[in-house]
Amino acid sequence: MDSNLGDKAKGMKDKVVGKIKEEYGDLVDDSGKELEGKLQQARGEAIQKKAEVEEDLHDKADDLVDKANDKIDDWKK
Prior knowledge:
Blueprint: H1 2-27, H2 31-76
Helix pairs in contact: 1-2
Protein name: CsbD-like protein
Family: Belongs to the UPF0337 (CsbD) family.
């Protein structure tokens, strides 16, 4: 879970820095910097989504293990 938190933070950082680059590029009429900012924002969004999906899958796997253990306990009785 800690790596997911780190990924979420990295994704947020990329989104913020990317937005700053995009706005700077727009301000100084530098389309390359503007595009770089948009790409960094997209990368940040992708990193955050990946972390969310991994966390969700981990939670579902834990639920399945718990259910399996409950069934095993029931069978032992």
